[in-house]
Structure formats: structure tokens, C-alpha cells
Design goal:
142 residues; Rossmann fold; 6 helices
Length: 142
């Protein structure tokens, strides 16, 4: 949910919410990985973002996985979506974020970066690791 908060905020900053939902959709652009768990996590985040926004959200990848951003955009266009935003699932600007942004047919959100929800997520994960991993607790207390 914290990631979805940050993604929604970045989309809003880019101009999301100014068009009818029936013509809108989002491509969630991620770096990509050959790790099936990473792809599964991105798909889960896309599902949560779709539920939050009330529009289709397709995960897409800059490298090492499919579909690509171009393919996801074409898929949504074929489904009659005309206002396709790009949600950046990148933590910082860089090659993949820039290339993905350039493929956005409408608006593109900034990377997650310093959004307050990202700091909350890091703190949550740290606290979670402290409670679930004895080795991590030992390392953190050293």
C-alpha cells in the first residue's frame, strides 16, 4: 500500500485525474528481472494500483522481462484506452526511467525517489527485518 500511495501521488503530480476513467489506463514501468518473484511483485503492485485508481494498470518492463512498455501501451490502445499514463516504478532517474518516460503517450510520473511513503516503506521493512530475523537483529545492534 505504501508503494501505491507513492505511485498515485506521482501520477497526480503529473496530471492524473483530468480525464474520464473510461478512456484512461496506466502502464506501470519497472526495470525488469529474470526473477519470477520480482515479476510477481510488480504484477501485484499493478493490481493494487488499478484497484486504487479504478482503471486498468498493466505492468511493463524496460529490460529482461515482457511485456515491454511499448507492448503494454499498444495493448491498452487496442482496448480503446486513449489517455495512457506511465507510472514510474523506479526509485531514481536513470536510463530505464528516461527510456520508459519517452514512450509514454500521455503523461509520465516521476520516479518514486524521495516521496514520504518511500521513507515509511524503508522504515517498515527495517522494523520487519528486526522482528523476523535473529541474524539481522544481531547485525543491527552491533
Amino acid at each position: 500500500p505504501l508503494l501505491v500511495d507513492a505511485l498515485q501521488a506521482r501520477l497526480t503530480e503529473a496530471g492524473w485525474g483530468t480525464t474520464p476513467r473510461r478512456t484512461s489506463a496506466v502502464v506501470l514501468a519497472a526495470a525488469g528481472s529474470r526473477d519470477p518473484d520480482a515479476k510477481s511483485d510488480t504484477a501485484r503492485t499493478a493490481h493494487l494500483l488499478a484497484a486504487r485508481l479504478g482503471v486498468p494498470v498493466l505492468p511493463a518492463y524496460a529490460a529482461a522481462a515482457t511485456p515491454t512498455v511499448d507492448t503494454a501501451v499498444r495493448t491498452l490502445l487496442a482496448r480503446g484506452r486513449r489517455h495512457i499514463a506511465l507510472a514510474s516504478y523506479f526509485t531514481a532517474p536513470g536510463r530505464f526511467a528516461t527510456e520508459s518516460t519517452q514512450k509514454a503517450p500521455w503523461i509520465a510520473a516521476a520516479p518514486l525517489g524521495t516521496h514520504p511513503s518511500m521513507a515509511d516503506l524503508v522504515l517498515h521493512r527495517y522494523e520487519e527485518a528486526l522482528t523476523t530475523s535473529p541474524a539481522f537483529r544481531e547485525l543491527a545492534s552491533a
